Amino acid sequence: MKSNWKLALGLVSALAVGTAALWWTQQQQAAVGSAGPAANASGRAGADAQAGPNDPSPTVQLAEAWTAVAPMAAPTMTAEEFQLGGPMKEFRVNTVADAPKALGMAVEANGGPKALGPLKRATWRVFVGGGMQWSGQLVADSAGSALLKDDNSGQEIGWHAGTCWLARNGVVVPCHRSASAFVYSMMWLHRISTVQSLAAAPWRPQSVSQTQANNQLVNSLHMGGGPDGQVAVLFLDLRSRRIVGADLRVTESTQQATNNDSAMARGEIWLENLRPFGSAVLAATARVTVDTEMLQAKELLVSVLSVQSGEHGGLQVPVKVPAFTVGVPLKLTSRPAGLGLVFEIGQHAKFEPRLMEVLKGFNSFWMESQFDIVEAFGPLGTPADSAIQAWLMPLSHTAMAMPGLEVHTKPLAAELAVARKVVQVQLEQLPAALAAFLSEVEKAGHIPAPDHRSTARLLAVDGSHAELAIVELDVPILPKP
C-alpha cells in the first residue's frame, strides 16, 4: 500500500545565503521574544546569551559525540597520467550491440575484475559538503542495498529492496524525501564506481547515443531492467572509457517503495579527480544534484576519504527491511544541552501552520535531515495549551553555522533525568497523549520537574492518515536522591 510519510527523524532545511537569510531577518517578531546572540563558528553561545526557560546557565557545551571532520586533500591524477585498460583511444558506442564492450572497457579502466571484484560489497568513508555538512560511512553492495551512518548523531539511513528507512536510538521510521534521495544517490555512487554489476544481468542497455553532458561529449547508455524498476543513463568518456557520470531516474514503483510520494524524481552524479584506492582507480570526489517534485536541490560535494572491501566499522549491508517502530514503552534517560532554533507558538493548533510558515523561507533541501522538529509544551505549572514553542534541534553543530539563523538561536538546557516514550498518535490528539503519559510517569513513581518543558519530537508524520504521527515524548523528572 502506498504511504505518504513526509516527516522523519529531522525534516527542516537550514538556510543558505542571500534571500533566505533576508527572510529570516524579516521574521523577527514580538512573538519570538528576545533571542540570544549568534553562535560563533565553534558552535558555542556568546557570553551574553539569553537563557532558556529552564536553563540554569547560558553556558552551552557541544555533545561529546560531535566531531568536526574535514575532507582530506587527496592526491589526484588525470586520466592521461594513469590509464588502465590500454592506451587512450576514442571509442564511440553507436549501437546497443556496442554497449557490452563499452562497459567492459569501463571495468578495465577502473582496475579490472581483480581490483573491482572485492569492492562489490564495500565500506566508504565520505565527507559531504555543499548543500549540507555530513561525514560518515557508507556500506553498499552492487545489488542495490546500502546503509549510511552519520558520525555525529549515529543516525542510520538504510535502503533495501526499494524501501528506505531511518534508524536512531532503536527507533525505525520511514524515510522522508531528502533521506531517500541521499541514500539512493550514494548507493549509485558505489554502483557506478565499481562498474561490474552494471555490465551484468538484470541490467541491460535499452538505447545508446553520443550526447553533450557536463560540458563534454560522452557515450550515453540508457540502462533498464534494474531491481525495483530502477533505470539510469550512464555517461562514459569517449577517450578514457570510464563512467564519468549518471542520470538517475526513479520510476513510479520505486518512488512508492520509498514510503514517500515526494521522493527523488531525478538525480545526477558526476565523478571527478581520479585516485588509486588499492589496485583500483576511482574518483576521489563526486558532485550530486537531485530534483524532486517540490524543488531542485543544491549540489552536494562528496569527498571519498577511503574505500575498503567488505564491511567495516560495525556496519553491515541490509539483508532485509526492519520493522517500523509504532511505539516504545517508558524508559528513563537524559537530554544533553545544545543550541537550537526557538520559535514562540502559543497553542498546539498553531504549531503546524507556524512551522509551515517557517519552512517557506528555507531553500536548502539537503539540510532537512540535519534538524529535529520538536514541539515544546508550556512549562509544567502553566495553563494547559499555552506557551508552546517550536524547537529545531541540530543533529550536528555545523548546521547552526548557516547564515541567517542568529535571531532565533537560543541555548537549550540539559535535562539530567527524562522519562521517554514513543507513541503513534494523530497530531491533533498530541496534547491528550502527553497528558496521558504524564499520568503514567506519576503512577510509575516519578515526579515531573516543575517549570520544565515536556517535549514531543516528531519522528514521522503520515499526511494520508489524518496526520497520524510517530512521536517521541520526553517528560523531565526530578532525579531521585
Report on the architecture of this protein:
Helices cover 15% and strands 36% of the residues. It has seven helices and 22 strands. The strands form two sheets. The protein has a 13-stranded antiparallel sheet with strand order 7-6-5-4-3-2-14-13-12-11-10-9-8. Mean pLDDT is 80; it is low at 8-69 and 252-263.
Helix content: 10-25%
Give the overall shape.
elongated
Q: How large is the radius of gyration? A: 24 Å
Q: How are the strands of the biggest sheet laid out side by side?
A: 7-6-5-4-3-2-14-13-12-11-10-9-8
Secondary structure elements and pairings:
Layout: E1 5-8, H1 19-26, H2 99-109, H3 112-116, E2 121-130, E3 134-141, E4 146-150, E5 156-160, E6 163-168, E7 171-174, H4 177-194, E8 204-213, E9 216-224, E10 231-237, E11 243-249, H5 252-257, E12 264-277, E13 280-292, E14 300-309, E15 328-335, E16 338-346, H6 351-360, E17 371-376, E18 388-394, E19 409-412, E20 415-426, H7 430-443, E21 455-462, E22 468-476
Antiparallel strand pairs: 1-21, 2-3, 2-14, 3-4, 4-5, 5-6, 6-7, 8-9, 9-10, 10-11, 11-12, 12-13, 13-14, 15-20, 16-18, 16-19, 17-18, 17-21, 20-22, 21-22
How would you summarize this macromolecular structure in one to three sentences?
The chain is α+β, with helices and mostly antiparallel strands and about 475 residues long. The protein contains seven helices and 22 strands. The protein has a 13-stranded antiparallel beta sheet with strand order 7-6-5-4-3-2-14-13-12-11-10-9-8. Strands 1, 15, 16, 17, 18, 19, 20, 21 and 22 form a nine-stranded antiparallel beta sheet that branches.
